[in-house]
Design a protein that fits this description.
Oligomer: single chain
Strand order of the largest sheet: 3-2-5-6
Number of strands: 8
Low-confidence stretches: none
Number of helices: 0
Radius of gyration: 20 Å
Order of helices and strands: EEEEEEEE
């Protein structure tokens, strides 16, 4: 992510696996610290049974991108039973999100820009690649 997109809405995809079996219908909750996405908790449903070690993912939409460069986190994840709220799996430090600063545009040299669906190199540019 880049600060040029500050405040934009994005979709984040979290890939995860657990060390325990998780029944379908369980709820996954993703906790953000207060300095990202307004510290909100986002939820999703687990649609099918998971065996220990199975990898799956959760897509979170309407995620608000931060306005400053830096590392944001940690992000916590809890998986709960939908019937009684019991915690089935949990980590308080699933990962962090890094937002990089805007990069300065070089005043000379080789520059590639995207115009619509076309990549365009700056005039009189050359790329020499050696091994």
């Amino acid at each position: 992510m880049n600060v040029a997109n500050e405040g934009d809405s994005a979709t984040l995809t979290f890939y995860y696996r657990t060390t325990v079996a998780i029944p379908s219908g369980s709820v996954i909750q993703v906790y953000f610290p207060s300095n990202i996405n307004s510290g909100t908790t986002m939820e999703g449903d687990i649609d099918s049974d998971m065996n220990a070690g199975d990898e799956t993912y959760l897509e979170l939409t309407a995620f608000s991108l931060p306005s400053s460069a830096g590392a944001y986190g940690p992000i916590g994840i809890t998986i709960r039973s939908s019937t009684n709220g019991q915690i089935l799996a949990m980590t308080n430090a699933f990962g962090c999100i890094y937002v990089k600063p805007n990069e300065a545009t070089p005043s000379s040299g080789f520059v590639v820009t995207r115009v619509g669906t076309t990549d365009a190199a700056s005039p009189n540019s050359a790329v020499n690649i050696g091994f």
